[in-house]
What does this fold into?
Amino acid sequence: MQKIRIKNRTEIEKMKRSGQAAAKVLHTIANAIQPGVTTYELEMVSRKAIAELNATSSFLGYEIPDHPPYPATICVSVNDIVIHGIPDVKEVLKEGDIIGVDTAVNIDGYHGDNAYTFPVGKTTPDAQKLLEVTKESLYAAISEAKPGNRMGDVSYQLQNVAEEAGFSVLQNFSGHGIGRHLHEEPQVPTNGKPGRGVRLRPGMVLAIEAMVNAGQSSVDILDDGWRVTTSDGSLSALFEHTVAILSDGPEILTGSPIWENQ
Ligand code: MF3
Ligand code: CO
It folds into this structure.
């Protein structure tokens, strides 16, 4: 197992810059989401925003084991797509859809990673509830990301808030440490038990990902090698922040105005 890379103050300042850049890209994409827009058009908006920030995409060309290189700067996960949806000229957003947008950028050698699930126009009360609960589970998890706690305290919140609402979390996908690499140790599972797992220390930076299915937790990977869908066709939502663990508690590095409404 690789070891956990603790970041010093200077590195955390740099990660705040990449986190803020990632947040700006997500905010810019949010403003472009409306019925009739294709997910490929959102990819174009993202590329322009990343270039204007003098950043580079952490996703484009990224390789994870057993996957082809990722072909875009964003993951767009519409309705029953859980994660890793690839932008497509033929995928047109329609009123009532929900779309998870995940994007990460590199500035000055450090990565910032975030995701948010948006309603397209007006959506159903059920979908709205899924969005609210998933976002709430992320904030509950973040509040446990403090020195002295363990990873299980964070993971438990992701699982418990979702399950209390009658939803389910993924079994085999996790958030992750982040820094000079997009994916570092430790993993941040979406399920766990309080008091178990890695002890959290100041200087750890985590990309905490809340991934919640409205129905069952079972998922399938489609034959492009990337897209993950719910097996039962139910909706799925994704919210992610990059969070630094400081001696006095968690600091969200990817905050932006999109998180304040809804
Ligand atoms: N935020 C997701 C993750 O950290 C998105 C990965 S897309 C990839 O796993 F291209 F980087 F793989
Ligand atoms: Co991530």
Summary: The chain has one domain: 9-261. Residues 59, 62, 64, 70, 75, 84, 102, 113, 176, 182, 207, 240 surround MF3 (ligand 1) (CB under 6 Å). The chain has a mean pLDDT of 97.
